[in-house]
Queue: 3 jobs
Job 1
Amino acid sequence: ASGLVVEPGLRFDWDEIVRRPLYSPRLAMSYTPGTEATTKFSAGAGLYYEHTQLRYLEQAFAGLRTDTYYAADGVTPVGLPLATAFTANYGSLRAPRVFNWSAGVERKLPASIYASLNYLDKHGTDGLVYLNQGPPGALSGIYLLTNARHYDYRSVDFSLRRSFWGEYTLFGSYTHSFA
């Protein structure tokens, strides 16, 4: 259709840590109705794999950690030293991923002012995190690297832009977001 642009995509990666192929499909589109092109609608969605954070992996090679807790005087131990170990089963790990989708509208207002309103939603799964395998509340023990981290992020932003004499731009924006 006139004024419509659709762009599909597919990205392929190989993660040497999780040893799996990573396929990331994406789709973006833009639509400008009418002949004057004063309004543009856009939307997109895609799956994105995050690169594996090596700091999580190196912790499993650090060896045994021993923590000693002291009384308020800073000299008297309040108990026996506590041992903590970080381990990982690399064969069970998956690559952390995020599904993003967004939508927006931009419109040319009188006096060549451009206004835009955009929404962004990110949903992350399979994030790497160490979980204590001991009883709840334990400060030491064996921590296993897992894919148990999940997170969400959403934002809405509004902006106004005006160019003067082709060189100078006045721009204002407000973003409301939460995670």
Note: Residues 54-59 form the longest helix (6 residues).
Job 2
Amino acid sequence: RRAMRSETEMVFDYVLREDRSVLESIDADYTFLNAKLATHYGLPPVEGDTLRRVTLPEGSPRGGFLTEGTVLAVTSNPTRTSPVKRGLFVLENFLGTPPPPPPPDIPALEESAKSADGKDLPLRAALAAHRDKPLCASCHERMDPLGFALENFNAMGMWRDVDARQPIDPAGELVTGEKFSNIRDLKRLLTHERRLDYYRCLTEKMLTYALGRGLDYYDVQTVDQIVDNLEKNQGRISTLITGII
């Protein structure tokens, strides 16, 4: 637990102090690990208890906040993953397009989690049965594909290939039409085609934090200017901070 928290803090600290792109919080070829955390993630061995910057193996799904144990744990339920919570986290914190609150009297997912013969359904199939109401489907179509892209990570951030003895299918499609086949594809979409959405989302959250108030209509010009400058400067975090100051 301590190592997971330190990993996230040290990644942010590294981006900040080295003035790197804020997009590295989504996708990067490095993270900070010690022996226990590297073993937990199934990565090549790292010696000692001290966390250090480690270059990830080529093609690794790790790198960026979305694949760190902190985010994967807090967006899970106590006994299983939650594609809904994970998808909502991406929408709220990376794309800036949170869905409206769910309607009342929605049955629990567990009520949809068994097939007609009583067997446990894979989570994707259970969610498909859960959202058969059109009112539910409109929001779940935005959240669930993003969450399923992270299904290869269990509730504690360890890699897995099956769920309920069925192969995990992490493929999906954004509501804007872009398709992805796994978490690596999704991270590429977020850092390329949808990077301006992330710049705007991050700018709005940082401004809200710095100003101590919600944003209003007269803040739009400031947000637009900071986003434009982030795009011109390859997303460097100093551009965001000095723009807010």
Note: The CA atoms of residues 80 and 155 lie 6 Å apart.
Job 3
Amino acid sequence: TIQASASQGGSITPSGAVSVAAGSDQSFTMEAEAGYEIADVVVDGQSQGKLERYTFEAVSADHTIDVSFAPVAGGALLEQDFESETFPGRGWTVKSTHSGIYTWHSGAMSQMNGSRVARVDGDEYDWSDYTTGAKQDEYLISPKVNLAGKTPTLKFDYGFGRYALFAGGIRLTVEASLDGGATWSVIWNAKESLENASGYYQTGTYELPIPAAFCVDGVQFAFHFYKAAGDTADAAAIDNVSLTDSAQP
């Protein structure tokens, strides 16, 4: 039996008393909630550091694993680099009309960086008849955060197929919801907020002040990739998302 527990600010999966067949391996995944980060993972009383995943190999005795979380330093209310072993991780979710690479997934975009990013590829063709692309309506959704009394800024890295976006083939927006994702309001539109630059893929970093109407408890944010059926498509990607309170040092 492996006893797995987590402090306030996150979770360990699986948790509680986990039964393992003798000689088998058992893995655990640790995820921090919005505004928290992993402080330490302690296995059988010994610190293992800030791990997101730990595996007991060839189990032959009882064990314990405990993960502790701490508030993120520096005024950060939410951080996400999409480097978790499970995508999207850290309490984020995906609402999709597609699967695989045609919705948000863990991928790469070399024009942005050499690490994992959240990426969605444009489905230009309906492979049943090879003539028209399928509609895509893909949301990458943050956990709920408390922004009451704060002056927050959402910062993120972006990348997208420039020709498709500025021609209207794809749309990339940031949206906010106050009702658990039932309805969304656009607070940033890549086509309207960015200048048409150069190169096949356009990349950069954007800092978005959050409108006062969404500085409340329980707000969520989403990166929304949309393409109408038949439109010329291309990829988009998001990485290194952070939400910080400018009133904090």
Note: Residues 162-166 form the longest helix (5 residues).
